[in-house]
Amino acid sequence: MRGVPLCRIMSAMPDSPASALPIRLFLDDSDSPSDVVDALFLGRFATGEQPYAHNSSLDRIKAGATLLPPDARVLRTTRDDNRSSTLAEGEGWTLLVSRWNRGADVTVTATSAELAEKVLGQATDGARDEPEPQPDNVTMGFWYVSPTRGPHRTTRRIAAGSWDEVRPNYTAPVADAMGRLMKVTPEDIAGRLLLLHGPPGTGKTSALRTLARSWREWCQVDCVLDPERLFSDVGYLMDIAIGEDDGTAKGRWRLLLLEDCDELIRGEAKHTAGQALSRLLNLTDGLLGQGRNVLVGVTTNEDLERLHPAVVRPGRCLARIEVGPLTRQESVAWLGTDEGVGREGNSLAELYALRRGIGPASVPKQDTGADAGLYL
Prior knowledge:
This protein has two domains: 118 residues, TATA-Binding Protein (2-Layer Sandwich); 186 residues, P-loop containing nucleotide triphosphate hydrolases (Rossmann fold, 3-Layer(aba) Sandwich), CATH 3.40.50. Helices cover 30% and strands 23% of the residues. It has a seven-stranded mixed sheet, with helices on both faces. It has a five-stranded antiparallel sheet with strand order 1-5-4-3-2, sandwiched between helices. β6 and β7 form a beta hairpin. The radius of gyration is 26 Å and the shape is elongated.
């Protein structure tokens, strides 16, 4: 709660649980109406009158959904530009609805666990709004640690071209390897690690979006936004290893995407990174990964020679693809002209820049004299 420290609430609570709502609060000009609502909601739970709490988070809510069960009595409401809060009660329970944009958190405290579960189900039943799948879109999950809710997964619909559409973005050997990967089914899985490495701007992330579309019938794809924390926080790692189904089918495979993990899988990783690497490998083919249909996809800008030998050993990788720039001939064919195309070809990002009429960014040649190392 913003601006309402718990010690201030507890010191102001009456001795009788029956009179715990409303409670007495000491407020100052840093407190807002939503802080008051949050504090009032905690009263019956804190005193033990309603010792059971159940929560549900909804990313998308249908228009008109109140998120209130039948016969709910509304006690307080607040609203600002981006958030609203509603405090309601019923016989033996209290409910707080915190809404923002298209999502909401619904929390119920009650005199029994069964009642809390029942009221929460009534409040959220039929409220979740899932958009109709679009042929050129794919649902992808995003994991991160929220300061208030801990490990949290949200979903988004992202644009993803078909493999036939994006194949010309990759040089021939890469396209052949990618094409085989797009056709993989659960029966083909041998290794659990998918490694895409190569210079920035060569289309590694674009390939992963297309892979999510190609595998969407059998694999749930989740991107971990804070991979450095994932492998340093055992609780976070366990939450993701156990997983959260997207609701489409049980027993689906999951692909966890970790982007730009150079430090994690580099050969000369420091001790802390080495511990993280051990946990990564344990998730792919160690005890942690046993019995779980989990694949791990890693992108890195490092050369293959600089990667840790344990990462690239035979049998561990489902695929290990170096994604490089297109050749000059392929670049000219992609762009439709040779204007601006380099002698050795171009990366995908450079070609898109040329198509928009923006020359590729270049770094001036550096002075390699004896004192060059003194300058940043």
